[in-house]
């Protein structure tokens, strides 16, 4: 998996370009946000009022 190759170690193998680092941050942040809202939506549908 590509993300484990970038995050491994103390950042010595991180992409040298700032734009790529920002893109990875935005991608990980947006994916985690989508997963959070998806789980919250499922929980909202499962739990009765």
TrEMBL record:
TM region positions: 22-47
Protein name per UniProt: DUF2474 domain-containing protein
Highest taxon of the lineage: Bacteria
Presence of the UniProt keyword Transmembrane in the record: yes
Keyword terms of this UniProt record: Membrane, Transmembrane, Transmembrane helix
């Amino acid at each position: 998996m590509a993300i484990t190759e970038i995050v491994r170690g103390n950042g010595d193998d991180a992409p040298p370009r700032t734009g790529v680092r920002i893109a990875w941050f935005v991608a990980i942040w947006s994916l985690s946000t989508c997963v959070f809202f998806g789980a919250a939506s499922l929980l909202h549908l499962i739990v009765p009022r």
